[in-house]
Amino acid sequence: MSNDFQPVSGFDLPRFAGVPTFMRLPHVPLGAPGLRDVGIGLIGIPWDSGTTNRPGPRHGPRQLRDLSTMIRAEHAVTGHRPFEAANCADLGDVGPNPADILDTLERVSAFYSEVRAAGIRPLTAGGDHLCSLPVLRALAKDGPLGMVHFDSHTDLFHSYFGGTMYTHGTPFRRAVEEELLDPKRVVQIGIRGTAYDREDRDFAEAVGIRVIPIEEVFDRGVADVMAEARDIVGTAPTYVSYDIDFVDPAYAPGTGTPEVGGPNSYQALQVVRALSGLDIVGADMVEVSPPFDTSGGTAFLAVSIMFELLCVMTGG
Amino acid sequence: MSNDFQPVSGFDLPRFAGVPTFMRLPHVPLGAPGLRDVGIGLIGIPWDSGTTNRPGPRHGPRQLRDLSTMIRAEHAVTGHRPFEAANCADLGDVGPNPADILDTLERVSAFYSEVRAAGIRPLTAGGDHLCSLPVLRALAKDGPLGMVHFDSHTDLFHSYFGGTMYTHGTPFRRAVEEELLDPKRVVQIGIRGTAYDREDRDFAEAVGIRVIPIEEVFDRGVADVMAEARDIVGTAPTYVSYDIDFVDPAYAPGTGTPEVGGPNSYQALQVVRALSGLDIVGADMVEVSPPFDTSGGTAFLAVSIMFELLCVMTGG
Amino acid sequence: MSNDFQPVSGFDLPRFAGVPTFMRLPHVPLGAPGLRDVGIGLIGIPWDSGTTNRPGPRHGPRQLRDLSTMIRAEHAVTGHRPFEAANCADLGDVGPNPADILDTLERVSAFYSEVRAAGIRPLTAGGDHLCSLPVLRALAKDGPLGMVHFDSHTDLFHSYFGGTMYTHGTPFRRAVEEELLDPKRVVQIGIRGTAYDREDRDFAEAVGIRVIPIEEVFDRGVADVMAEARDIVGTAPTYVSYDIDFVDPAYAPGTGTPEVGGPNSYQALQVVRALSGLDIVGADMVEVSPPFDTSGGTAFLAVSIMFELLCVMTGG
Amino acid sequence: MSNDFQPVSGFDLPRFAGVPTFMRLPHVPLGAPGLRDVGIGLIGIPWDSGTTNRPGPRHGPRQLRDLSTMIRAEHAVTGHRPFEAANCADLGDVGPNPADILDTLERVSAFYSEVRAAGIRPLTAGGDHLCSLPVLRALAKDGPLGMVHFDSHTDLFHSYFGGTMYTHGTPFRRAVEEELLDPKRVVQIGIRGTAYDREDRDFAEAVGIRVIPIEEVFDRGVADVMAEARDIVGTAPTYVSYDIDFVDPAYAPGTGTPEVGGPNSYQALQVVRALSGLDIVGADMVEVSPPFDTSGGTAFLAVSIMFELLCVMTGG
Amino acid sequence: MSNDFQPVSGFDLPRFAGVPTFMRLPHVPLGAPGLRDVGIGLIGIPWDSGTTNRPGPRHGPRQLRDLSTMIRAEHAVTGHRPFEAANCADLGDVGPNPADILDTLERVSAFYSEVRAAGIRPLTAGGDHLCSLPVLRALAKDGPLGMVHFDSHTDLFHSYFGGTMYTHGTPFRRAVEEELLDPKRVVQIGIRGTAYDREDRDFAEAVGIRVIPIEEVFDRGVADVMAEARDIVGTAPTYVSYDIDFVDPAYAPGTGTPEVGGPNSYQALQVVRALSGLDIVGADMVEVSPPFDTSGGTAFLAVSIMFELLCVMTGG
Amino acid sequence: MSNDFQPVSGFDLPRFAGVPTFMRLPHVPLGAPGLRDVGIGLIGIPWDSGTTNRPGPRHGPRQLRDLSTMIRAEHAVTGHRPFEAANCADLGDVGPNPADILDTLERVSAFYSEVRAAGIRPLTAGGDHLCSLPVLRALAKDGPLGMVHFDSHTDLFHSYFGGTMYTHGTPFRRAVEEELLDPKRVVQIGIRGTAYDREDRDFAEAVGIRVIPIEEVFDRGVADVMAEARDIVGTAPTYVSYDIDFVDPAYAPGTGTPEVGGPNSYQALQVVRALSGLDIVGADMVEVSPPFDTSGGTAFLAVSIMFELLCVMTGG
């Protein structure tokens, strides 16, 4: 661990001061000399062109950086100090092309391929859920990954609007088709809301994805559900994808396709703590949409969850 | 079931597009030829002149229509598809007179009498809680109805401001007096908040209305309380009245007289699902006040509950 | 003039009541029998995929419909009554594909071709400024049009992000290249804000587009500038494109790329009144972005301007 | 002048501290001994039951009190110190009956009759514009008054919704009919917005009310228009009624029926200063609607105008 | 009990009317004759100069007064009527010096010494948490007090920013050092959030303060934890300090240093009810920050909790 | 001019992407090697402890950085490109001590002394107006400076709250006393609003400061007033201090002590352009308070003005 990678403390510089980087970490762009010392890279993907409903997550990384300056260095329950356990840095944002989906898919994959080549595990701040697809394309080069997926939607649809294949409702359909994910090692937790039809769930069933609806989460409890989730992904390399609309909109109104009847913020943190010990090769926090919560409350919850993700990625 | 009554799908037309009707259903005004095919009519009553505190629910139907375009066709848990189970349509709004309470009571009753005469069961979007009174006047022509009432207030007071009889705090006192409701078949669930005095509860006790305070809901659990509620109303014709302030204001801030310490959004849905099998002759969702939640979050919760109501009204 | 096309009066039905159509006009979709009687069609294009900065105008048509219910039937200054001067109707929205720009360009052109074929002049509610391009493709079939363009930006850039040709910063570059506009009959009024470079203005100069910066508007006055504008477009067919960011953001905060130092709301109306007598074949109001002004103030200004546009399109 | 009636200074107690009364003056309810020493009474009428569109002004007095703690003791331009020129006090609110219009008209008139009997001139904070009617009923007991009326609407309509006589669109029609106002000494300034029809203006013309539309204000300038206004009302007793929607909604968004294209805040103050020297028997500031501007900006403008009114009422 | 100290009822005067005092009680400033009859004084401390992060609680007392007009006279569950059990009054605000911390500490202590000398028990509305220190200095003159402290932070740090001793993160460190609190009779409930380090918890452990983290609250349940809390403080004089950030930010967003994963509003009330029977010499509600919740929802929850505090302070 | 100091273009990276520095310039902290090449340093002072009323400007620098990513490279009217005329960089924030005014005054002066020693001219983003005092202490080491001061307040008061000398209402009183400013070369423009008394203006008159009230600005016009301002400061070294409350609150609501009746945004820019040719040794933009305008509109106006300041500081 290098001292260069310690976040600025709120005891020294108040939380509202300074150029805001993720969790007040040093900004180390791709190509910078310090990159080789980074173990975990926090990366923004300010892109929401796959959004079929209310856009806004392109503004996510900036608000998440802003609110992340409220995060401190130590996990209160476990005492884990992730910034001492690994060198963490803000790698900046992938530059998107908001008017060209295919171009941006390429840009993101290229960026993450470089990150992976540098031996850095990425913790991504989206962006809408389509962002996960090009990240997986870069990370799954050695074979399909397992995935723990928190969401109120499966994002497993085939296409929208008469055949459009790349939207925030289709990334994991594509990821399974492209063999980036091993469907038998994929678990989706918190699914709810009114449904179009059963096309997504039929696909899940056909390929072996385990879908855990919210009713099951509440009936069985977080601990039991998460034990099953750990069993499903096992000890092989696993990706964690966290759509903020997993959480009830009272706690996370700043998102484009909320669904009522979800978990509270305590449960939102608990489900991540339960991932401790998994082999997490990357994680993301997506669908935070600042125009729908200018107060920053949603973003603060999201960065609190990102801190939990960082803890389980660093042995906490 | 006629195909004419299917809602527009978000796969075809994005949810933010199109003239917003309730749940993207066809708009069938009174007098239109299609009316005879309608089984369930969604109706707005944009009226809040009975409000003793913070007005706003007159704007409710428009915001509820707007947010209802986020609702899809299928219940995720039960698989029930209400728009296939019955012909549903948006019958438009009752035209109120915002400066004359007695005139508006007449207008609403006249509208609903016509709806009832057409054999249509109404699902109403208020409006403040005084709206329920003229609706009951139209629906209870064959005798008093039972009622399941979700609220944080009993709305059973005798009068306000030195003798004013028609406010949103008095509708069910009037309805009992006018023999529109059978008090022995009325249950009020979720009552809480600081109290003026016990005049309303004394009345409830005297006539046999069962009041279940929120403490009892939390102590006994939703399932147990709702089993009692079903017993109380039995198999005879029953009305369901849902004041959005039943739900905790963190989930439903857009209302005029919130009371803290209420149920969450999951419980807000569960209590309706538990009504499955009752003989529901009509239902309403009242007190959504858009000026107090311009984000639309309260309205989205309200239309999600309306979808649940629609499901139990159509055999779901 | 048919009585069927009169808007609902606020004396009869309060402005907050009823399913909201543009200016409370009848909803006459393409294909409906009444279409042949329509002279002017108000149309929504809920699409903002061309936005390079802050998205949101896809929500414009719905908020514009909502606020348009505040508009009454008569122009207070001229006494003109546009709904009596022509049959006006709400033709609904073009169904966009938010995840495919080329597909949506086609969809919009097809819709407007049908409108034009029916002899209807369109008054469009966007959507971002890229919407104007497919509308012009449909309207300019008999030859290039003149254009009066109110905006703080020229929207004449060649491309963005390394070659992307279709964004809300490029529509009129494309329209000139495609000979939909006659650049010598194009005037752009209100241009201001910091500049990338002079590429857009060099193009304007090269092809003969007259650019009137805001300083000139304030120095010469609205009357003088608008006299010049009328001279430029002359008596031949002319399109009017009105970007709400023409107006100062204090008056119109709900837009994605505001520029300070613009006209006030009185001037915003005056410039349209000055178009009286022109041969206007169509007009649009674009870039109203509801997520950036949930109060509806921007939309209300926009519909007030649309009413002025309607007046000058109907001989007012 | 008594020292008891001096407002608390922001040099002694910060503006955000203390129980908020109008302009930090002493609270002297009707019946209190200090009442006999009061020269000008600031009074709230928290009532908006006459509102035909978006309610909210019932919350006006409280927000106006809150923001009025920002007002200091001296007029910066004239050096006039109104609180030294007359004993001013907060007389509290008239208690309305929000569910009974006729009852409330009586309550307000009774309150103001008592105020007038005590020799106190009232400066009223509404409430919607119907509030002015019962105030005039109390003040015009010795004969019809003149009136300077700032507004974007004439409020001269006969009735709404099929014959309803008491709404915020009819108070001055009633006041002329009841001979509370001398129409030949009434001037209405700033009228604008789309019009239903010409019924109100025909009435004005018939009885001799001078209506000055906003175009005339801008063309002739404030000084010229106000000179005419002073001539119209002359030296006889005059009431001043100020509807905040006189001002452009960019400056005063917190109101129920805004009309774009109005004066700015500087002009909003200037028109009042021009009333210096008139015999003002009472004044009001109405239609401030806090739910539509929770920021308090509208209320702050309104209390700044109320301070100007106080200055011209006290010889400033 | 004197009738002079009864709050105004909403049946007589609507809740939005009248000069807002705490819970619509009479305003009895220090020095007023009625002071000798007061048993419990509600006092505002509009001061937030100790805030290290986002300021705003200086505006707390005014918003709390505003929302407290929604509180009624009777506890719905227990039937307790606190305003009949003791004479309660609004004593007004302590006048702070926002630009001098030491001066303000003196001002607050002096005010509360006078309150204590008059035999009045204070219920304080802050202000940030530093407010509790000068209050304790006045109340603990006969020896150290016990304290039940609801918060997400311990506020036990030694200093900030290189040695600054008086901030809202240090009040209870000072209070223990100054022997205002008996650490063995102090319990802190709800502690959570990311941590700087363990300096505060080490101090707690060293002096014997019991810290109950939120995990323990959720695992053991409110009843069990509160039983322990009652045991810790025992029957000796006890202070209750309630930081609104104890509650989850979904319920109480209007605060400067929120921490996700907290209790809901029902639990927020339950923990206070469990204090029934203790010897409470004073209580406070701090850190409500109106600029971060202009809706008033946080303040309404806070005054609902203050009503519970009032009940347990008056034998309820 | 070095290419290293060019801002990122919105053609390459969308404006919402990337770690936000002032105007997308490189971040060059004190002590960094690149510092020696910097000509103009943009610096944040996130500090508002001198605020006597509504706090918030401590959050200013972060929001100003965020919105400044909307600024492009070229002045549209003059064609001036400031980032090519001088090496500009973001020097980061001064670290304040929010709980100790004297300590922070030292910290700011020390930071700016270092900046001055490096030959860098500062363009400051506050913070409240007390920030200007320690900046002047660092910049005026060779003798008193002239000052052009845009504001609605003089900030010339002696003290507040019984003798407190350092608040945002006193900085220029101190600066004159400390001979940092030459009062005969100081002009204050835009002064307005209700006044406490004449203590500040008497001081101005006594020492020879020219105060231009807003009435004079509107009567004489911007050009005439600014010609006088240029004459007053002459060709000697001059500081420019711009309080955002100079502008009317409709354009700049995000500030703590607004005064209505101010200039519009066009005039807000024009007054700065008129400073072209002066010898400007430093400038600031203060009192932007994000909690009072979360939309960012005020901050966008402020950074647009900062761009104008940058232009006149670099020969534009």
From TrEMBL, chains A, B, C, D, E, F:
Source organism superkingdom: Bacteria
Listed cofactors: Mn(2+)
SUPFAM superfamilies: Arginase/deacetylase
Pfam families named among the record's database cross-references: Arginase
Free-text comment on the cofactor: Binds 2 manganese ions per subunit.
GO BP terms in the entry: putrescine biosynthetic process from arginine, via agmatine
UniProt: Mn(2+) binding residues: 129, 151, 153, 155, 243, 245
GO molecular function per UniProt: agmatinase activity; metal ion binding
Keywords, alphabetical: Hydrolase, Manganese, Metal-binding
Similarity section: Belongs to the arginase family. Agmatinase subfamily.
Protein name as annotated: Guanidinopropionase
